[in-house]
Design brief:
The protein has a domain of 44 residues. The radius of gyration is 27 Å and the shape is rod-shaped. The longest helix has 25 residues. Helices cover 86% and strands 0% of the residues. The chain starts with a helix and ends with a helix. The protein is an all-alpha fold.
Amino acid sequence: MTKALVKTQIRLQQLVAKGESGQGTLEYIGMIIIAAILVGAVALTIKNVDVGTKLQAAITKIVGP
């Protein structure tokens, strides 16, 4: 009786695991899409700001006049 229950439990776990086989791939794709959106947003923000001028001002502020 116990062996039959163990075999049944193992079989059920295998069936459940098969249903989740593609989930990891979808999670990675979602993370890649979010990262691409963030990179695009940062690129658009930097495009409108003169980075060289901001960097020079920060260095002057640290080093002094």
